[in-house]
Design a protein that fits this description.
With about 400 residues, the protein is of the alpha/beta class. Helix content is about 55%, strand content about 10%. The protein has a single domain, classed as Alpha-Beta Barrel (TIM Barrel). The relative contact order is 0.13.
Length: about 400
């Protein structure tokens, strides 16, 4: 009798392992055979800071061509990230041009590896050719500089979404990170800009904007809106940078989607708490030592604290966000917006770079998502929203 029970247990374990192996293989297959869009990867800024070549294998960072190919990534939005101070010193447009040129230079260096699409049709063709298609998303509308002709200029350069603001309120919108809210949402120019973006077919990105600005965008926009790299506030109460349930529902009702950010502090309340504790210790040490934040001593102290005390999210924590959004609004309104190369060393265990998208897909399969569900999350949903913006512009634009 005991022998029979032992055999049954062995058979059960073998069967379970076989199922897991099959799902691992299917996860790899799904990432390799479908369009995989990531809504936000900070490669251009990383290139500008490190002067490196992501067309070949690189040391450090989260993205390069070999790892992207391994992970199945073939349509990452390149973030044209403009730091807030660029608006203050009047260099935002020039800086955006430099970052766009860096992506163009990458394509010129590796024309068989990369391409920049200016439409969904171009993206599909580039992927069919085996290239990694690099659509452009501008993170921080500061580069518009209050001139609508600049909007069209950047559209012609390939920008297909604009995150209205970033870490500080700008001339377009209040920021979720900024206590100063001069516009109580969008500025008058910002409200006009939303309509002009609709007319051109540029997607509006509400990541980083204040809650008031979000609701105004939803009211004004006639085309579907995205959150290119945000997560669910349900898991991080009080963190305005993430989206509340009511906001996710409104976004979905308008036809848009939320693309889940992988950064641990976007995903986990425990991670956010550990970060706050570290910040308090650093602040105290700075006061006691009369040193600045950029002091090598303080920088080393900060690194050591993060190494010892920072709490990383894990793959299950990330998957919980996917589940929560699915339960709220369904799979048609979920995407991936990792923030690779943008959140430093805060990425979750199991999602450390662009080679690890199959881990997400395996986790979704384990949680009962169908292959069709997963294809939508990988890229189908974002392409639908992009198409909605293209179609609106074609019929209602200039």
């Amino acid at each position: 009798m005991k022998k029979n029970i032992f055999i049954i247990i062995l058979l059960f374990v073998a069967c379970d392992k076989s199922i897991h192996d099959d799902r691992r293989a299917l996860a790899k297959k799904l990432t390799q055979e479908n369009i995989l869009v990531d809504g936000h990867i900070d490669v251009p800024y990383r290139i500008s800071q490190e002067n490196l070549d992501v067309g070949i294998s690189t040391e450090g960072g989260d993205f390069d061509f070999p790892r992207a190919k391994s992970g199945g990534l073939n349509a990452p939005f390149m973030s044209i990230y403009i730091p807030a101070e660029k608006e203050t010193n009047g260099t935002a447009k020039d800086y955006a041009d430099q970052l766009i040129s860096s992506v163009e230079d990458l394509v010129a260096t590796y024309p068989n590896k990369f391409a920049i699409p200016k439409s969904i049709d171009e993206l599909r063709k580039q992927v069919e050719q085996g290239k990694i298609s690099l659509p452009l998303g501008m993170e921080n509308g500061a580069a518009i500089e209050g001139r609508l002709e600049n909007l069209e200029y950047f559209y012609n350069r390939g920008v297909r979404y604009i995150t209205l603001t970033h870490s500080k309120s700008n001339h377009i919108s209040d920021s979720s990170y900024d206590d100063s809210r001069p516009w109580k949402g969008l500025s008058e120019f910002g409200k006009k800009l939303v309509g002009e973006m609709n007319a051109l077919g540029i997607m509006i990105d509400v990541s980083h904007v204040s809650d008031e600005a979000f609701w105004q965008v939803i009211e004004i926009s006639s085309a579907p809106v995205i959150a290119s790299h945000s997560s669910a506030r349900h898991f991080t109460p009080g963190f305005e940078r993430n989206m509340s349930d009511a906001m996710i529902i409104a976004l979905a009702e308008q036809g848009g989607l939320i693309m889940v950010n992988f950064g641990s502090t976007f995903i986990s309340a425990k991670s956010r708490s550990s970060q706050a504790s570290i910040a308090a210790l650093v602040e105290s040490y700075m006061r006691e030592s009369n040193l600045s934040k950029k002091s090598p001593i303080i920088e080393e102290y900060t690194r050591s604290l993060y190494k010892d005390k920072f709490v990383y999210a894990n793959l299950d924590d990330v998957l919980d966000h996917f589940d929560h959004i699915r339960n709220l609004v369904g799979v048609d309104h979920i995407g991936i917006g990792s923030d690779f190369d943008g959140v430093g060393d805060s990425l979750p265990i199991g999602l450390k770079d662009v080679s690890e998208y199959p881990n997400i897909v395996f986790g979704l399969l384990e949680r009962g998502y169908s292959e069709e569900d997963i294809k939508k999350i990988l890229g189908g949903n974002l392409l639908r929203v992009w198409q909605g913006n293209e179609t609106y512009a074609a019929f209602h634009g200039r």
